[in-house]
Amino acid sequence: MSAAFDYDVAIVGGGPAGSSTALHLARREGVRPDRVVVLDKAKFPRDKPCAGAVSQLGLDVLSALGVEVTVPSATMNGVRVLEGDVVGETLEPMGIVIRRTEFDAELLETARRDGVHVRDGEGLRAVTRGDGPRGGFTLETTLGATVRARFIAAADGAGSTTRKLLGIREPERKGHLYVLDTERVALDAGIERGLVDFDLSILEDGLEGYYWDFPTMLDGSLQVSRGIYHANLTRPDAPSGESVKDVLGRALARRGIDIAKVKLRPFSTRPFVPRSTAWVLGVLLVGEAYGIDQTTGEGIAQAIEMGRIAATHLAGALSSGSPRFEAYEREVRASTTGRHLLQSAWMVRRVYGRVGHPARRFLLRSGYARRAAIRWYRGENLSTSTQLRLGLGLARSLFA
Fold it and tell me: What does the alpha-carbon distance between residue 57 and residue 229 come to, in Å, rounded to a whole number?
């Protein structure tokens, strides 16, 4: 049956989700790498606006596959949660911060060396289904070429062309971010110690999210990735009419940084919510094309883990010929990553909304809560006793 197709799997998108899917197909599932193609409209290395935090979960998944991250990185040794003059600090390993330009190129090049056909600089323009439920697909690329594939893995991020071409509707409003890089300043108290800052003060400005300062390596020196995340649960701008950019400008000014003198890179995020679409016939969605963490706006590690799960079900489909991926959706949602993403979608309004003051106060005051949050961020399951203790602590904070 494969002879009728150029490839068994066409992966649209060469970021962490796409590379992880390709690498797991070749290294873990035994699919011939030359039967897998990755299409991406960008030529790698390409700039990617993102804070670049990769939790330990993502590193562990890559390590199990025999892939070690060798690009420059800054270690995240803990967290500082800020609100006004209140600071809650906890030292606990979290993962690393990388530059997406370097990290994504390294992963994709690893897949290329494994024998996967990587066609970067060649995006998806159109897609046509073959006749019948098992007829595969014809993909037209931006270079005018055609690619015939049995199955498609859509790993093309928040702006997924695959989703648009297939008419897959958005289940939720997208989040908004701005990211920038600067030298360290006097108020970067935690950066040299490898601490990441989550400043919740912007909630007073009506935004639903946080401002961040992360350590990052740029041109061989320790610098700072800064930015703002707005979950956009109700509308993109603050109730006062100020834009996300205006609020970011004030947050930067408090750190002595003039927003007019830095380069801002905007981007959007697609949240993972209960209504998110995981698949349509012959196509499964991976990484941000499916959805990422709605509370934090992060998704690199989750994309890497989704790529592992996607590869398993693509390999199964190649054996069975079935174009249905219900089992993929079930496994993602039942996995630790999927449960965390759904928990995050539940928490986001309870943390960032007006009713979220007790939860934020608890996080600021309780080292136990912050350590649990870090373990959760790393992709670990929290025990029942931990969840009960957190629930009791939160209940007490309601009356504090």
Answer: 22
Dump pLDDT digits (tens) for 69-121. Answer: 999 999 999 999 999 999 999 999 999 999 999 999 999 999 999 999 999 99
255 and 370 housed in the same domain: no
Residue 349 lies in a domain: no
At a CB cut-off of 8 Å and minimum separation 6, what does 383 contact? Answer: none
Q: How far is 15 from 285, CA to CA, in rounded Å?
A: 13
Q: Which residue in 204, 187, 205, 257 sits closest to 227, CA to CA? A: 257
Q: State how far the alpha carbon of 199 is from the alpha carbons of 50, 80, 278, in Å.
A: 17, 8, 33
Same domain for 252 and 287, yes or no, is: no
Rounded Cα gap, residues 203 and 201, in angstroms: 5
Mean pLDDT confidence for 186-210: 93
pLDDT digits (tens, 9 = 90+) for 368-397: 999 999 999 998 989 999 999 988 988 887
Give the residue numbers spanning the domain of 120. Answer: 2-52+100-171+273-341
Please report which residue ranges of the chain form alpha helices under DSSP H.
16-27, 56-64, 100-113, 161-166, 244-253, 300-320, 326-334, 336-352, 357-365, 367-377, 384-397
Residue 147's identity, in one-letter code, is V
Any domain includes 197? yes
Give the residue among 87, 105, 146, 148 at the shortest CA–CA distance from 14: 105
Give CA–CA dist 21/310, Å, rounded.
6
Residue 328 sits at φ, ψ, to 5 deg, of -65, -50
Position 133 pLDDT exceeds 80: no
Distance CA 139, CA 158 (A): 20
Residues 17, 23, 24: CA angle, nearest 5 degrees? 90
Give the position of tokens 């707005």: 230
Query: Taking Cα atoms as reference points, which of 124, 84, 100, 97 lies closest to residue 44?
Result: 100
Whichever domain contains 236, its CATH number is 3.30.9
DSSP-derived pairing of the beta strands 175-182 and 146-154: unpaired
Domain finish residue from 269, 303, 330:
269
Contact 214, 196 (CB under 8 A): yes
Phi, psi of 5 (to 5 degrees): -125, 150
